[in-house]
Amino acid sequence: MPKNSKVTQREHSSEHVTESVADLLALEEPVDYKQSVLNVAGEASGKQKASAEEELDAEDRPAWNSKLQYILAQIGFSVGLGNIWRFPYLCQKNGGGAYLVPYLVLLIIIGIPLFFLELAVGQRIRRGSIGVWHYVCPRLGGIGFSSCIVCLFVGLYYNVIIGWSIFYFFKSFQYPLPWSECPVVRNGTVAVVEAECEKSSATTYFWYREALDISNSISESGGLNWKMTLCLLVAWSIVGMAVVKGIQSSGKVMYFSSLFPYVVLACFLVRGLLLRGAVDGILHMFTPKLDKMLDPQVWREAATQVFFALGLGFGGVIAFSSYNKQDNNCHFDAALVSFINFFTSVLATLVVFAVLGFKANIMNEKCVVENAEKILGYLNTNVLSRDLIPPHVNFSHLTTKDYTEMYNVIMTVKEDKFSALGLNPCLLEDELDKSVQGTGLAFIAFTEAMTHFPASPFWSVMFFLMLINLGLGSMIGTMAGITTPIIDTFKVPKEMFTVGCCVFAFFVGLLFVQRSGNYFVTMFDDYSATLPLTVIVILENIAVAWIYGTKKFMQELTEMLGFRPYRFYYYMWKFVSPLCMAVLTTASIIQLGVTPPGYSAWIKEEAAERYLYFPSWAMALLIILIVVATLPIPVVFILRHFHLLCDGSNTLSVSYKKGRMMKDISNLEENDETRFILSKVPSEAPSPMPTHRSYLGPGSTSPLETSGNPNGRYGSGYLLASTPESEL
């Protein structure tokens, strides 16, 4: 070799020497690939923007301390408040035990495959949602930005719910519980019960008036609720401390926040099963109504619940899996987390209906006592004859069975005038059929049931501490869906950006702690995420299965996992899941069009809820939320389609530094010099998702590191590149 050759210059100098691939192949000796690392990178500018150390960022990426910590993080993110107060309601509403059948079917054909897909791409590419989808399909790179926006919308109101739980948690340290009795108002020497409370109930009054101090409609702001503002500040402080150091801090928090809810649920289940009437609630819950299985609405709601229960599309799943080692068995993780999520939902359902069965018996006995007093009044005023009362009935120890018998006799005899008597049948089934979900379950029905528990403050503290931990686990994943892709892409300081996010979210979140804030929570919960997330997930599925290629992706998984995933996933990703998601998206759009958006308002004067439609300005805000969340997808597509935004492709060059070869091929055509370095024909080029390839963001270097093993995936291609005589 000539002494003045570029290779000789390289060996005696630490400076970068850049030259064309053709020169390298024609003039240089073979590279000792066993002593070198080959990095393939693309840059819009055609120049090296990052140092070698930055290009190997994937190797220095933070990692979970243990597999258990990672699994707990995924469980903490996927198992949230919806498992406690949404799944039991849907189960009751849609056929009891029969609802479990469509839910399980959809979990298998939609939930697990798409959850596995997100875990796999995050672990393979080792970047947040922005980097992952830019890598898989640059034109659909807007998916990652949309995920971040949806996470922001959800985080804004989700932390408000944690704030509500914090308020109830601190109020639980007193006996009797403050929501166990209606407050008494003194008017001079006269003491009367608060009218709003007397018309409703003690727990309902405490929730709407003491906690929220709610206004009559969304149009009446009413100013800030200072108690909830303070609780929101505490909630964001807790979340900020949990995520400020990334997985180093959040991973440790997960040991408690993910496991503690199961301890509480187990305690509540044991306590609940010992309550009188618990079996009635559980039997009512799991008595299947098989006709419901044929209702399309049941399947739509089951699909939506599967979709949200696993946290698909938020970016949190991808963010957490991106901190895994390349050979981690994410297939096992997907199945494990999915079924733990399902098991948690069933466990929560048992707990909820054991407690609600107890509450139903209490309320039914109360109904019997109230109506028995009415009957005694009618007997004393001769409105009813004493002959109508069965001789064995004892009003001082009246059972539900005796009351039902007496009620039926009176209804038969007084058929024409029965309605004027105002008697209630007091059926246990009617109490059990009263569907409650969301805040109505947690802050009204469940709190009312706990007032009848022995040592009620203890159980109240445990319950709301469980809600705080469930919310915290989900919030950590939601924040990871925002911070991880932004930090990966734009290289902003982690701590500064995380603190800035929390401060910004707190001030925007003041919208939800004004007196009308609960109505905005309803708006964001019902509309800001549902449609955008279905669009995001169906495009994720299409990007991998139809654009990147299912066969190619399966091959990547085989190399990453060490075994080939079941053929089942091929058909799910390719055909079944996209079709199901398309149907769900269409159904969601139709539902929005058919049912005018509205909310349940609490009317103080009536002490009752009334369903109101959103005013025009609120409708405009609702539409803006949906548009803003989905807008990055078409914007990025258009910009990259018309080359207004560089996607980093076809911009490579080659340079050397002390035994490390970094290749930057500038503006090469597909059939040009690439064929000499990779293969004889473009179709034989290796898959574009190599081991350790890491995406650093738009306009930055995306390195690919390959060991010198000639039997590896790129071994033969690089061996040919280092011995050009065999090709030429």
UniProtKB/TrEMBL annotation:
GO terms for cellular component: plasma membrane; synaptic vesicle. Residues 682-728 are annotated as: Disordered. It is found in: Membrane. Keywords: Glycoprotein, Membrane, Metal-binding, Sodium, Symport, Transmembrane, Transmembrane helix, Transport. It comes from the Eukaryota. Pfam families: SNF. The chain crosses the membrane at residues 70-88, 100-121, 142-170, 226-247, 259-279, 302-323, 335-356, 458-484, 496-515, 527-548, 568-594, 614-639. It is a multi-pass membrane protein. PROSITE patterns: NA_NEUROTRAN_SYMP_1, NA_NEUROTRAN_SYMP_2, NA_NEUROTRAN_SYMP_3. The keyword Glycoprotein applies. SUPFAM superfamilies: SNF-like. The keyword Repeat does not apply. Na(+) binds at G76, V79, N83, N341, L470, S474. InterPro entries: Na/ntran_symport, Neutral_aa_SLC6, SNS_sf. One of its GO terms (biological process) is L-leucine transport. GO terms for molecular function: metal ion binding; symporter activity. Its main location: membrane. Residues 699-710 have a biased composition (Polar residues). PANTHER family: SODIUM-DEPENDENT NEUTRAL AMINO ACID TRANSPORTER SLC6A17, SODIUM/CHLORIDE DEPENDENT TRANSPORTER. Belongs to the sodium:neurotransmitter symporter (SNF) (TC 2.A.22) family. NCBIfam families: Na_transp. This is Transporter. The gene is SLC6A17.
